[in-house]
Design goal:
This protein is mostly helical and 199 residues long. The protein has one domain. Helix content is 82%, strand content 0%. The protein has eight helices and no strands. The longest helix has 35 residues.
Length: 199
């Protein structure tokens, strides 16, 4: 996000201010999906340690459903309220318009980040935190920073594509997390085994 801020600063004062405001808004909104990472990690580890893999996986499923639902709801609401949300932080009309576009694209990250946060929590609960590290690095190097940089050049008049590019990084993480989960399930890792038991 420091690199994204540098890229925004290269676009001028208005865009830099808009990105700064939206980053603060997103930090607040992300409290919900971020809390699910900790929740899945703690409850998952507790249940896996007690030999209740089914209950640990149920925790993951519920967390995924809650964060996905929250992300969809916030994303839809923000498409209509982005202007007013940004306007809470500045009176500069140009910054508000730029921030509105950036927030409308960036908010979709709440959906994808919520999903990979939940998986990251589960991987940590299973003692496989290296997967969380790797998918985050992969998303930054292959998608987030390159796409933000390219969209900042290709679309100099709006921040909306830059917002979408940021969300694309989390989408890469989601794909890697699902792939890793299915791979570990297919290779007999006990914490990833199919289990219908919730008790």
């Amino acid at each position: 996000f420091l690199v994204i801020t540098v890229i925004a600063n290269m676009r001028g004062l208005t865009d830099a201010a808009a990105v700064g405001i939206v980053e603060k808004i997103i930090s607040f909104i992300f409290l919900v999906p971020s809390s699910m990472l900790s929740t899945v990690s703690v409850l998952g580890a507790q249940n896996i340690g007690a030999g209740k893999v089914g209950r640990a996986q149920q925790t993951l499923r519920y967390a995924l459903a809650m964060t996905f639902g929250f992300g969809i709801t916030v994303s839809i609401f923000t498409q209509y309220a982005a202007y007013d949300i940004v306007a809470l932080f500045t009176y500069d009309a140009a910054v508000i318009v730029a921030g509105e576009a950036y927030l409308q694209g960036y908010i979709f990250d709440c959906i994808f980040a919520g999903i990979h946060f939940c998986f990251s929590g589960y991987f940590c609960a299973c003692g496989r935190s290296e997967i969380s590290f790797l998918h985050n690095i992969a998303s930054i190097v292959t998608a987030r920073i390159p796409l933000v940089y390219l969209t900042s050049i290709w679309y100099p008049m709006t921040l909306f594509p830059m917002g979408l590019a940021t969300a694309a990084g989390s989408l890469v993480s989601v794909v890697i997390c699902i792939g890793a989960f299915l791979y570990l399930r297919g290779h007999g890792s006990p914490a990833f085994a199919k289990s219908d038991a919730a008790a």
